[in-house]
TrEMBL record:
Organism (species): Putridiphycobacter roseus
GO molecular-function term, one example from the UniProt record: methyltransferase activity
Protein name: L-histidine N(Alpha)-methyltransferase
UniProt keywords, alphabetically: Methyltransferase, Transferase
Transmembrane regions listed in the UniProt entry: none
Keyword Protein biosynthesis among UniProt keywords: no
InterPro entries, sorted: EgtD_Methyltrsf_superfamily, MeTrfase_dom, MeTrfase_EgtD-like, SAM-dependent_MTases_sf
Disulfide bond listed as a keyword: no
Gene Ontology biological process: methylation
SUPFAM superfamilies: S-adenosyl-L-methionine-dependent methyltransferases
Chain ranges of the Histidine-specific methyltransferase SAM-dependent domain: 4-312
Pfam family, one: Methyltransf_33
Length: 314
């Protein structure tokens, strides 16, 4: 809560104004993101599901999994596990020797996932881990068992390339040579496809973005007039980054009581709330260049919209 207040203040005092995308995910934000994943325009979910459904054998081969030797399958931010279940089912039915460790900050999400997995894949060994990714990885590190890390859904795309390098490097410090990282990323493609994924016709993404102001209103006693701000997405294929902004439609002042300050907005002034980076091989190579990982395989969906890169810890 205190870091929330501090980061909101920092972001709104900056020029241009920014707010961190990690704060989208309160209860309402979680629900809106589920809706986003189910909408026709948000192709990312279905593209990666296509890989997990139809290229399962390739994934298993690329991850170099053997039935004889035990490994830990660790997922960062497991969500509802729809994609992962495709892989888990196959591994269980073919008698691979492993435990599944879904890590999530939300105890509630983990409880729901565990219950669902119990009924859907009875023979799967699930060891839910509630907490921060790196704190959990640090505790798992001691056992030295071979590890496969799953980081799906292009979640890495909310980070700048510089921070993505740092993140992947840090994952490497919790692994041993031969361990693997399966990194799911959205690929750079035409704005006709990417644009609508971040600006859907029903306004769900707009509500998701604006919910950040609603959260500030609720948690920091602010008076953002939600009718005087609007969702403004931007994407150009050359850069390959979908960006979300909230634009003030009028000149206005917003008071945030918990901060003890007021903030001025010009008509048309934007708050930058999110980047969703899209990738290609060159960018991935550049991002992992200063980490202890090498690129082993790339597995794409049938439309080549999305890629699961297999990286080996060197
Ligand atoms: C959860 C970070 C992968 O950037 O595509 C969806 C979040 N933002 N619509 C993405 C999001 C707007 C999503 N990630």
């Amino acid at each position: 809560m205190n870091t929330f207040k501090k980061e909101v203040q920092q972001g709104l005092e900056a020029n241009p104004k920014t707010l961190p995308s990690k704060y989208f995910y309160d209860k309402k934000g979680d629900a809106l993101f589920v809706e986003i994943m189910n909408m026709a325009e948000y192709y990312l979910t279905r593209s990666e599901l296509d890989i997990f459904k139809n290229k399962t054998e390739e994934l298993i081969q690329a991850l170099d999994l053997n039935k004889g030797s035990y490994f830990e399958l660790i997922e960062l931010g497991a969500g509802d596990g729809t994609k992962t279940k495709e892989l888990l089912k196959k591994l269980v039915h073919e008698n691979y020797n492993f435990d599944y460790f879904p890590i999530d900050i939300s105890a509630n999400a983990l409880a729901l996932l565990e219950q669902d997995l119990k009924t859907e894949i009875a023979d799967l060994s699930v060891k839910t881990q509630q907490g921060d990714y790196f704190e959990v990885l640090d505790t798992l590190k001691a056992n030295k068992n071979p590890k496969i890390i799953l980081f799906l859904g292009s979640n890495i795309g909310n980070l700048t390339d510089e921070l993505a390098t740092k993140f992947i490097y840090k994952l490497g410090t919790n692994l041993n040579p031969g361990d693997k990282l399966l990194l799911g990323v959205d690929l750079i493609k035409a704005k006709e496809i990417v644009g609508p994924a971040y600006n859907d016709s029903k306004g769900i993404t707009a509500a998701f973005n604006i919910n950040l102001l609603e959260r500030i209103n609720k948690q920091l006693e602010a008076n953002f007039n939600l009718n005087q701000f609007e969702h403004q997405p931007e994407y150009n294929e050359d850069e390959g980054i979908a960006k979300s902004f909230i634009t003030s439609t009028t000149k206005q002042t917003v008071e945030i009581k918990a901060i003890g300050k007021s903030f001025q907005f010009k008509a048309g002034e934007k708050i930058h709330t999110e980047i969703s980076r899209k990738y290609n091989d060159k960018l991935i190579q550049k991002i992992i260049a200063d980490t202890d990982f090498s690129l082993a395989r790339k597995i794409m969906d049938s439309k080549a919209y999305f890629a699961d890169y297999i990286l080996n810890r060197t």
